[in-house]
Design brief:
Blueprint lengths: L1 E2 L5 H13 L5 E6 L4 H9 L4 E6 L2 H10 L7 E3 L21 E6 L10 H13 L3 E6 L5 H8 L5 E4 L4 H10 L2 E4 L8 H8 L3 E4 L6 H4 L7 E2 L8 H18 L1 H18 L2 H16 L29 H11 L4 E5 L3 H5 L1 H5 L4 E6 L9 E2 L2 E4 L11 E4 L5 H7 L7 E4 L14 E3 L7
Parallel strand pairs: 1-2, 2-3, 3-4, 5-6, 5-8, 6-7, 8-9, 9-10, 11-12, 11-15, 12-14, 15-16
Antiparallel strand pairs: 13-14, 16-17
C-alpha cells in the first residue's frame, strides 16, 4: 500500500505508527506542496519512514534535496497535472471593450491578498482604464469583497464553481490575477495558462520563476510578499497596463507560449505517468519502519496540538509577556497558535485589551471575553504594544502590522525556518500603517 499523507504532521504519524505493526505492507510518499517551514519540518521529521519525496515545484524539489542530502536520489520533482486543451481559446481584440480580469481561488487575505484586487480596480478606474473584474470562490474574505463590490460596479464575485465552470471562465477572460504573498505551485495559475488566460501576478519564492518569464508567458507586478494592499494594487495596475500596451498580437504570442509550457510539463497525463513511475519504484523498494524509540505523533507526548505551535512556544510567550508586564497590549492572531497557548495568555502580567485579525468575518466577535478587531483599530482599544501570535506567518504579519498609533510590534521567534530553544523577545518599530 502506497500512502501519501498531507497537510498535518500527525497524518504522517498515523502511517509511522502503522509501520510498527506491518512494515512490509506500507510505503510512504511525502509530497511537499508549499514553501513553508512547517512543511520542511514534517518532511525532515518523518524522513526515516518515507520511501520517496516529491516537490511540486523546482524550488521545493531543490529545497528537499538540500535538507535531505543523503536522500537526494529519492527526491523527485513532479508538478500538478491539469487538463490542457490542444490549443488555447482565442479572444476578440481589446479595441473598444474593457479588459476582462479574473481571479479564481480561495477568498483569503492572509496568503492570497485578495483585498489588493479591490485596490487594483480603484487604481485602474482612477487612470480611466476600462476593465471588468470577476472573482470566483469562497473564503474568509468573501464578505469583505462583497461589501466593497457594492460601491464598485466593475467588480463581481461569484461562488465557487465546478471545474467545467472554471475552465469556461478562464477561456473567456484576458488576464488571470494572482496577488499571493506565497505559493507552492499554484494549480489555478497552471489552469489559467492552459486555457490561454495570461497571468498577472506578484512574484513568490516557489513556482513563479519556472512558469513566468515577464512579458513572454505573463506579467510580474513589482510587489513583494510584505507589500500592503495599496502598494500591491498599484503594482498590479502597472502590470495590467503593460499587458494592454503590448497589443493584441503580442498577447496572442504570450498566450500560445504559456499554453505550450503547460502542455509540455503539466498536462495531466504526463504528471500521472511521473507519479506512476515513482509509485512503482517505491513499491519495489525495501520497507522503511519508523524508529521504535521515537514517538509516532508529530505533536509530542500526549498529543492535543496542531503541530503548528513550536514546543518552546509557551516558554517564549511567557518571556515575552513578562517583558510587557504592566502594559496594555493587543495580540495579533486568533488561530491555533493563540488557542493552544490560552493558559499562558490567561496568566499574562500584561493587560490584553484586544485580539487582532485580518479576517473581517471574525472582527466584532470576541475571544475569552476580549474583543477581536482589525489591526488598524489596536490603538482605539488603548494598545501600547502589539504581540504577534504566530509561528508560520510571523514575518508577514509583523511586516503588515505597523502600528498606526505608534505601538511597538513584538515577535516571538527569530527569522529562521525553525525556532531555536532559547526564548527571546524580538521587537521592531514599523513606520507604515497596519493593514
Amino acid at each position: 500500500m502506497i500512502c501519501a499523507p498531507s497537510i498535518l504532521g500527525d497524518s504522517f504519524g498515523v502511517f509511522a505508527a502503522l509501520s510498527f505493526e506491518n512494515p512490509g505492507l506500507l510505503r510512504v510518499l511525502a509530497v511537499n506542496h508549499s514553501d513553508t517551514p512547517y512543511n520542511d519540518l514534517v518532511c525532515t521529521h518523518y524522513a526515516p519512514v518515507v520511501s520517496a519525496f516529491v516537490g511540486v515545484s523546482d524550488r521545493l524539489t531543490e529545497r528537499l534535496r538540500s535538507r535531505l542530502p543523503s536522500r537526494s536520489t529519492e527526491v523527485f520533482g513532479i508538478g500538478y497535472g491539469v487538463e490542457t486543451p490542444e490549443t488555447p481559446a482565442p479572444r476578440e481584440p481589446l479595441q473598444d471593450r474593457p479588459i476582462r480580469l479574473l481571479y479564481c481561488g480561495r477568498m483569503d487575505h492572509e496568503q492570497k491578498r485578495v483585498l489588493a484586487l479591490v485596490a487594483l480596480t480603484d487604481e485602474l478606474a482612477r487612470r480611466g482604464t476600462p476593465h471588468e473584474l470577476a472573482l470566483i470562490g469562497d473564503g474568509p474574505a468573501a464578505q469583505a469583497i462583497d461589501e466593497m463590490a457594492l460601491t464598485r460596479p466593475t467588480i463581481r464575485r461569484f461562488p465557487a464553481a465546478s471545474p467545467p465552470g472554471i475552465a469556461s471562465a478562464l477561456g473567456g477572460a484576458d488576464l488571470f490575477l494572482l496577488p499571493s504573498r506565497y505559493e507552492g505551485l499554484s494549480v489555478a495559475l497552471l489552469e489559467a495558462m492552459a486555457r490561454g488566460c495570461i497571468p498577472v501576478l506578484t512574484p513568490s519564492d516557489s513556482g513563479t520563476d519556472q512558469l513566468i518569464a515577464d512579458g513572454r508567458t505573463g506579467f510580474l507586478a513589482d510587489a513583494g510578499p510584505d507589500a500592503g494592499d495599496e502598494t500591491t494594487g498599484l503594482a498590479l495596475a502597472d502590470a495590467v497596463e503593460r499587458a494592454i500596451g503590448a497589443g493584441d498580437a503580442s498577447l496572442v504570442d504570450i498566450r500560445v507560449e504559456g499554453h505550450a509550457l503547460i502542455l509540455g510539463r503539466f498536462a495531466v497525463d504526463r504528471c500521472a505517468a511521473r507519479y506512476g513511475a515513482v509509485i512503482d519504484r517505491i513499491a519495489r523498494s525495501a520497507p522503511r519502519a519508523w524508529p521504535s524509540h521515537l514517538p509516532a505523533a508529530f505533536t509530542g507526548p500526549g498529543g492535543g496540538g496542531s503541530g503548528t505551535v513550536p514546543h518552546d512556544a509557551p516558554e517564549r510567550l511567557s518571556a515575552a509577556l513578562a517583558g510587557l508586564a504592566g502594559r496594555s497590549i493587543a495580540v495579533y492572531g486568533v488561530g491555533r497558535h493563540t488557542l493552544e497557548l490560552r493558559e499562558v495568555f490567561e496568566r499574562s502580567p500584561a493587560t490584553i485589551v484586544a485580539f487582532l485579525d485580518d479576517d473581517a468575518a471574525r472582527q466584532g466577535a470576541s475571544l475569552w471575553g476580549i474583543p477581536i478587531t482589525a489591526p488598524e483599530e489596536a490603538g482605539a482599544h488603548g494598545a501600547e504594544d502589539i504581540l504577534i501570535s504566530s509561528w508560520l506567518h510571523q514575518r508577514g504579519m509583523a511586516a503588515r502590522c505597523a502600528a498606526r498609533t505608534g505601538a511597538r510590534v513584538h515577535t516571538l521567534y527569530p527569522e529562521t525556518s525553525a525556532p531555536s530553544t532559547n526564548p527571546r523577545l524580538h521587537s521592531q518599530r514599523f513606520s507604515s500603517r497596519c493593514c
